[in-house]
Predict the structure.
Amino acid sequence: MTPLRQRMIEEMELRNFAPRTVALYVENAARFAKHFGKSPELLGEEHVRQYLVYLVEERKLAWGTYNQALAALRYLYRWVLKRGDVVRDIRGPRRVRRLPVVLSPDEVRRFFAGVGSYKHRMILMTAYSAGLRVSEATHLRVTDIDSERMVIRVCQGKRNKDRYTVLSPVLWEMLRHYCWAARPVSFLFPGRSPQQPVSASQVQRACKVAQAAAGIDKEVSPHTLRHSFATHLLEAGTDLRVIQALLGHSSPQTTALYTRVSTKLIGGTPSPLDLLSRSSNGQSQGRG
């Protein structure tokens, strides 16, 4: 390990960065150095600009992946190399905001029926039932399930925040049977080693298989179930502030996105043309 890499890791650990963020930033910094065959200490503003153009024009990276690389280089030069002037004038791309994919309740039922593995089905049902991110679901421990208060404790979710979310009575019964059969000790959904959680990539692959088995045309990922959880709660009349707390969103604007994908809210809203038509019919009846 190079001294620069070690210093970068130590700086992020001092700031309590999540292990996944540390790994992503270090990996992106290493790719930048490899691209030029030199240490970032010997590279400057023009090298950063050239590399970002390369990522966009030749690698054709998705916005999220490109932004990770940009964030890593900004952190490297600002806080590790103390050369913030190198990245001072570099701006990120304007974010393309797309509406999330949401499954209907019937599609959710078909999807779960298409999950062959008992453990994978329980992970995905837990993610949907509680609105969990895939990393939050895979890292649940047995002790995080609080059946006395009927809540699930999410430890160190996004941005290292803890929160509680709902424990469905239906899910609790399913988890009781699962625990009796699987006998988890530490992690609720262990991987090959009982001391390690099942990998997120395994759960993502299970989603793809279940999507095909269920004959669902939409792209389904574990995060699709989180979006569906929020939308279905909203359509059932749950207050947006409650949904925000369950999802762990910092901003209510993030949660408000689901008002734009709820077909029940959108489809149940009368068009001005309908109101105009009703008004015209009322006037006609009055004249009659």
